[in-house]
Amino acid sequence: MSASLSRPRVGVWLIGARGSVATTVVTGCAAVTAGLHPPTGMVTETPAFTGSGLPALSDLVFGGHDTLDCPLPKRAETLTAGGVLPPGVATAVAAELEAADREIRPGGPTPGDTRSEAELITAFTDDIRDFVHRHALERAVVVNVASTEPASQGPGAPLPASTLYALAALRAGCPYVNFTPSEGMHHPVAAREAGHSGLPYAGRDGKTGQTLLRAVLGPMFAQRALRVRSWSGTNLLGGGDGAALADPAAAAAKNAGKERVLADTLGTVPEGEVHIDDVPSLGDWKTAWDHIAFDGFLGTRMILQTIWQGCDSALAAPLVLDLARLTARAHEAGVSGPLGALGFYFKDPVGEGPAGLSEQYDELVRFGRSLGRPDAEGGGAPPVGDTGETGGAL
Amino acid sequence: MSASLSRPRVGVWLIGARGSVATTVVTGCAAVTAGLHPPTGMVTETPAFTGSGLPALSDLVFGGHDTLDCPLPKRAETLTAGGVLPPGVATAVAAELEAADREIRPGGPTPGDTRSEAELITAFTDDIRDFVHRHALERAVVVNVASTEPASQGPGAPLPASTLYALAALRAGCPYVNFTPSEGMHHPVAAREAGHSGLPYAGRDGKTGQTLLRAVLGPMFAQRALRVRSWSGTNLLGGGDGAALADPAAAAAKNAGKERVLADTLGTVPEGEVHIDDVPSLGDWKTAWDHIAFDGFLGTRMILQTIWQGCDSALAAPLVLDLARLTARAHEAGVSGPLGALGFYFKDPVGEGPAGLSEQYDELVRFGRSLGRPDAEGGGAPPVGDTGETGGAL
Amino acid sequence: MSASLSRPRVGVWLIGARGSVATTVVTGCAAVTAGLHPPTGMVTETPAFTGSGLPALSDLVFGGHDTLDCPLPKRAETLTAGGVLPPGVATAVAAELEAADREIRPGGPTPGDTRSEAELITAFTDDIRDFVHRHALERAVVVNVASTEPASQGPGAPLPASTLYALAALRAGCPYVNFTPSEGMHHPVAAREAGHSGLPYAGRDGKTGQTLLRAVLGPMFAQRALRVRSWSGTNLLGGGDGAALADPAAAAAKNAGKERVLADTLGTVPEGEVHIDDVPSLGDWKTAWDHIAFDGFLGTRMILQTIWQGCDSALAAPLVLDLARLTARAHEAGVSGPLGALGFYFKDPVGEGPAGLSEQYDELVRFGRSLGRPDAEGGGAPPVGDTGETGGAL
Amino acid sequence: MSASLSRPRVGVWLIGARGSVATTVVTGCAAVTAGLHPPTGMVTETPAFTGSGLPALSDLVFGGHDTLDCPLPKRAETLTAGGVLPPGVATAVAAELEAADREIRPGGPTPGDTRSEAELITAFTDDIRDFVHRHALERAVVVNVASTEPASQGPGAPLPASTLYALAALRAGCPYVNFTPSEGMHHPVAAREAGHSGLPYAGRDGKTGQTLLRAVLGPMFAQRALRVRSWSGTNLLGGGDGAALADPAAAAAKNAGKERVLADTLGTVPEGEVHIDDVPSLGDWKTAWDHIAFDGFLGTRMILQTIWQGCDSALAAPLVLDLARLTARAHEAGVSGPLGALGFYFKDPVGEGPAGLSEQYDELVRFGRSLGRPDAEGGGAPPVGDTGETGGAL
């Protein structure tokens, strides 16, 4: 495959590399590359992004950190039994799973870990640099897909692991994407360093189900001048995410993102709570029920209810691939700072941008176009950074 | 109220003037004008339309045609008992209901009617002209809110009543809005005449519930590159509309509009049917269940279900007021032809325009702005007609 | 109405006599008696109870305790505006509402109340005795329909108000029904006294919505040998009950009852949680969503979801009337102790009995028949008490 | 396995032997026998039936008729891919699938078939007799699990295929079970012959989803004296059944059974329709939405909605095994005529019996007990036949 080898390759370094999402990312990228499945769910494979100069799926190389040991092919087998991966795919791409498995390094801190925060950051940075070096990668994007952490403990507390990884990404010169509600680059220590890094970053908390719906239904009520009185929701999910989010501290971060979508699209925060229940028997499947009470003309009371039954990893994986490609290309194009144009993907987006999904989509398409222009026209308009403050680093 | 009298007043001539929607329109306009209720559900009362030069609610004068006899105050009482109108409102605006009631003329053709089509059109035209004349109205908009008719019978068949009224509107020099799926101005005879009339017109079939949702959810699936495999729906509704739509011929027109939204937003027509059931005990309330089966990454099967429980008349009435105001202002501003910019309101819009609700909203706001400019700036850019072909023909 | 006056009359003493449930009880009893509405929801008005010798609705006299001041006619007006009572009924039975209002005495302890527990019990007992005496009632039943209290605080804590009222009922010689999850007669102090009282009592926590459904769906799964893996639920409710149950301590008592139904009908406790959310804008209406994941043949995963939208007071009121009549008749017939045969009505029934609704119904009908026999046959089989231990007090 | 060979073996002759239900029956019986899966969904494996003398699962031998050619192992593979059978099971029981496959004979009439009805019946009878003979079976039960036929065409029409098979069962001396809504033994020609045959028979139309729910919810409303105003339903299903039932004539038979359950449990037929939609992409999975509008106290309007998402074949297969065992044992015990005691399993049961699921369950358990008594006590009470007319005639 000399053609492939001569093309610049791009690394995708996954924090939580042995989790369900990461395993689906690696499996799916290989399956789509091999033509076994169409790229359903990947926005970057639609015609709107043809000219954006994104790295090809076949040019992505996977590695990452994880604190667990279970080999990727084994994880893929479990996901197949659970109906997340279709029968036969994991076997068909066993070589790619094994290749990625060899590039996973131990994460941390693990229980009893005696390393200091500085030592951990250094170790993580070295792992990423070594990955880039050994594979002669043009660049690598660090993507956090690890289980949600409890919300931060305040000023004096130790740095959360997600922030250690974010700092390692910065020190290794890598763009960073936080697909989880964990703190990551939002911690003041990392945010400060990110501001000076000249690197692009995106996040946080992928918008895959209930919040995706809220981002289209919220604007509908606002545009129709209907008054939302209450918006209540319950999420049932199993898998690791269910257990992690059953911790109220972890759920708090996630729910803040969900509420932000409503506040931003409705202009007010309606009554109502959001519950996240751990229901282990649901495995990787999640069900979200939303109940919206609204007033119509003359105060008439009406109700909308939605029930979303999806597979979390299958919803997240194509977005992770999208984000890795877009962020890598943004880095290549010299964009730096918070990538507000990627708000389409997130519950709680960095930078500035609209809150309604349709406008976020339009902005994403514009961003994609801006990435493509310089290649095609040799010196046209500069790519669209998020804000003048940080985007002018070119 | 000399100030009010000196301001130009605008007529709203309702076809089906004794129906639930019309009664809610008249009651609600008076109640909002009197400050008894906020204008929930009226998009034209939001800040985006402040400068559009729309007629004030207090300047609207109501009349119309109907084949039934029941007085409006009596209808309002029934709607109050059914929970459509809040307790007390009908009594509070009894004077306005009686005033509108006095302006309702007999519709047709009624069973055994011996008048020819030409005679009916002339009678309807005279009624409208008389209304405009007696009230010294600056203009009047004709709005069809009558029960849905069976789909047309083909070339040789008699003109449907909705088309007789549409022709009367044209001959009376009035803009026309078809809020129902009936044929109205779509009949070739009327369409031809409309093309030469220099009048603006809009329609058809108000987007009030299930199709409103489809117009935001369809784009969501398309934007996320998720593959919709089937989209099935059932509507339960009582009232006159339930009975009318239980006729398969009447339902066919309505369902065509619903399918068009999916075809236009998804790019394909998914599997699945739409049912409309007459459930008299639901009265004016309707419930719409939608079941959407879609594929995610690697073909994983997922499901979204929505349940919409709304009051049809309360959903329709503020949109009818919006449409009357916008169409009247468009007429005043010299816009003619199909008002594609009003696609936000319709299942099956006339003219050209986007299919997703969010883009339709943007277009509506642009249209509102275009209506306002000439007044404010005295000779700025001309208002936005639907297409070059017919716009500006006045 | 000399016939009516000569018939023995029965008192219904409501704890929480100004609440939504009590107001609906008094209004509804009068409206049904007057023939304004059929007795929908009253099981004791079905043919199965014709010969049970129950007191007629027209023979019930209402009174009660409450810590609030709002007059019953005013409360009924509010409930009419909220759609709980149909328009016109409250006005039609204004005399009966005023009569009941005159029989409401101040409850307690109120904030700052300096009376001792013994003093409060004595005051309550005197109020009840006075009510019975002044109206020359044959007997009176005390029914707790007050807001749910927080769960008890342990051995040394003060007696909850519900237990003070329960003790007053015993001392006044009145049968007692606890329609709420509050402790009432379950407190050890009251339970001990009840055991020696020779009085019948019933409870607790009326089964009006989600748990009613669970009591028929649980047996279905068990009878079909389907394995329920998880049963999750969310309740949205406004009104006073929503606010009271938003307190986790109050919700705990309620949820225990809900779980008991599943444990008793399924034989195991499935995964899953129950949430009770206070959503004030829903008023007296409540929505309960249940999600049940179960295994079929060969472990195939299936899902049942239910959505119950009901009006709490309208669901509770006819059951309260049923319970007052049945308990009064049981007292008359000499039945004492826990009335396990009334498990049909409760989430967490006293005494012994089946958990499935259908078997509970059969037992209720048998109980009704047993109450009737002595009257008809003059000395046939004794009525069915709950257990031999306490039922032998005749 | 000499022990097994010496025990009397029982044949299960499946009409539609290559369909999804039949394939799941054969696969599941083998998998449960082998201890690969617990007998979830099989009521006859619960303790209540321990002493009923039912044939062991390991003693069942499968054969049948089908007009299709696809080998059973291939069908099982397809069902595995569709998520109906768990991964690995079909392979584990390949030998049993092949053994059953060898016992499948061509059904009919096929398109262009020139055989007369009498010839077809004779051919089918010979196939069944040959099966019993070659395997030295003690007896065989014929079970119809073929696709639903269109409703019968009236007096002069040819006998439906299901009736040809039913007649063949009678002539071969075999008990008969109709798990479908097809006419089968209900055709007057077959009904007459069944009456004289001294054979037991059961049916029709297995109660696996929406109607199962209706059979527990209908009694709930009746027992609580709540007035059901409308009961509307929509079923979405793919697979062969979806296509067959999209034919209105076939759906008519099925819907009649669904309505019967409501009429029998509620005492009236509420408003509302039932739709059955063919949605091929759902495969063997079906979704049933029910919307029930009911009145509570004083006419307050309330709503219950249910959504059932199940796998039709996995729901049906354990019931088919139950029915084969119970009917075989009834035959052995000398019961003849319509088995009304099996109403628990059917939408439209033969014979007499209650309509509520809970009472049907009680009757089933009594029936099971009656089957066991003669064995255990050597000459106790005779087994419970359905009606005196035909019961005990052997």
TrEMBL record, chains A, B, C, D:
<dbReference type="Pfam" id="PF07994">
    <property type="entry name" value="NAD_binding_5"/>
</dbReference>
<dbReference type="GO" id="GO:0008654">
    <property type="term" value="P:phospholipid biosynthetic process"/>
</dbReference>
<dbReference type="GO" id="GO:0004512">
    <property type="term" value="F:inositol-3-phosphate synthase activity"/>
</dbReference>
<dbReference type="InterPro" id="IPR013021">
    <property type="entry name" value="Myo-inos-1-P_Synthase_GAPDH"/>
</dbReference>
<protein>
    <submittedName>
        <fullName>Myo-inositol-1-phosphate synthase</fullName>
        <ecNumber>5.5.1.4</ecNumber>
    </submittedName>
</protein>
<feature type="domain" description="Myo-inositol-1-phosphate synthase GAPDH-like">
    <location>
        <begin position="209"/>
        <end position="313"/>
    </location>
</feature>
<comment type="similarity">
    <text>Belongs to the myo-inositol 1-phosphate synthase family.</text>
</comment>
<dbReference type="InterPro" id="IPR036291">
    <property type="entry name" value="NAD(P)-bd_dom_sf"/>
</dbReference>
<feature type="compositionally biased region" description="Gly residues">
    <location>
        <begin position="377"/>
        <end position="394"/>
    </location>
</feature>
<dbReference type="GO" id="GO:0006021">
    <property type="term" value="P:inositol biosynthetic process"/>
</dbReference>
<keyword id="KW-0413">Isomerase</keyword>
<feature type="region of interest" description="Disordered">
    <location>
        <begin position="372"/>
        <end position="394"/>
    </location>
</feature>
<dbReference type="Pfam" id="PF01658">
    <property type="entry name" value="Inos-1-P_synth"/>
</dbReference>
<dbReference type="InterPro" id="IPR002587">
    <property type="entry name" value="Myo-inos-1-P_Synthase"/>
</dbReference>
